[in-house]
Amino acid sequence: MLVTALGAAVVVVSCTPTSETSTTSAASTTTTVVTSTTEPPIRTGIGVENGVIRVGVMIPRSGPVAAFGESVLIGQTAFWTYVNETLGGVGGEFEVEVTVFDHRYDTDEAMSGFNDLSEQVVGFAGALGSPIDEVMAPLLAENGMLMMAGSLSSEWIGNSALVQNLMLPTYRDQVASALAWAADANLAGETAILYQEGSYGDDCVRGYDAAVSDLGLANAGRVAHALAATDFGDVVEQLRAAEPDLVVVCTTADALVRIIATADSLGFRPTWLVAAQSFDAGVAAALGGDEGVEAGIARLGRVSVIGAGPADGAPAASLMRSVFDGIEETDWYTLFGYSQAATFHLILEEAYEASDLTRAGLRAAVARLDGIDLGLDGPLSSLVGPAPVDAAAVGRIDPDSITAPFGIPATEPYFTSLFALP
Question: Of these four, 129, 180, 269, 300, which has the most CB atoms within 10 Å of its CB?
């Protein structure tokens, strides 16, 4: 599915609109009154007309992390198809049309994409990349637009333009929750964290430092590695010398393979708590090498995944299987795209109920939804479960979980983070 050409592509799922529109002004900033069965009439503006809501998605479809972008797009497409075909659109009335821009994980390309789409879409229902968030935030604020944050960093909580994911915990909360679980299970002992430099790793450290302090854990060390690192001998040796019982890891899947292989070669075998973003099915295959995936899984016997997906049998898992019927290739990034779309859909529905689908109406809807939790027990409607958004679950790695839909499923109960959403 990799697309190497840069540009925008439209993903449209047909749905017959039931409204007629009459424009009060040709100016792009002026609202439109929609004549329909809805009372009072719906106010609309840029990106909403003729019974269609146009939203953007800013992801890499080429470049170094294209595979992640494609997984996000699978999640986005499946969810909006569900909204249009099963729910009949937003409010049962407005079809959602998605325009996808390939930013190649390049900030200049992302800004170019924003300029291309800012007069076409009401907002951005999906994005990927902390650097993209950083350059987009001021542009979005200047234009009164919303975008789903392209990462799970806690630094965007409360931002006026970047919307926090209401289904998945932040990196900060993943780590804090996982350490609460480890302490409860008497696994913590001497703890350490190995993290990738940048906002992702920094947010993990926020959760780590708070948990170490509040839970009274013993910190054996904080070790960072460069984003482009391929040799982890020095950082693993630093950890080994500190003799931790448990190591939290926030990195990439490629780096994780090298980290665990290097640690094994040094005879260093702590308990590893690995962020979900750091793990995919390829880790086991790479560690197993010629001996096969089973050998790789055996080498992961002391590894647990934090920020895991919904447990088998949870309402969220049942709903997602329905939404993704016929789609086989799903992973954690698919779940990320799905949950972004689910959050943005909740905003659109709230704005529709208030009869205001303008950009200002969407921002007002976010303010009314502040603190609402979609939880991993089910996005939207009555399937919302008890797990707060500031909690995370832990998943175990075994032959079944390695190929499970949406990444490693939760096997341990949710533990609440030491933080609370504002």
Answer: 129
What DSSP assignment string belongs to 201-250?
HHHHHHHHHHHHHHHTPEEEEEEEE-TT----HHHHHHHHHH--SEEEEE
Order across the sheet with 42-44: list the strands: 20-22, 32-35, 42-44
Per-residue model confidence as pLDDT tens digits over 246-305: 999 999 999 999 999 999 999 999 999 999 999 988 999 999 999 999 999 999 999 999
Dihedral sign computed on CA atoms, order 13, 113, 31, 126: positive
- 171-306+390-416, superfamily in CATH? Response regulator (3.40.50.2300)
Place of tokens 């190995």: 194
SS3 state at 21: strand
Tokens of 50: 């003729």
Q: How many CB atoms lie within 10 A of CB 329?
A: 11
Architecture of the domain delimited by 8-168+314-383: 3-Layer(aba) Sandwich (3.40)
405: cis peptide before it, omega within 30°?
no
- Phi, psi of 135, rounded to the nearest 5 degrees: -80, -25
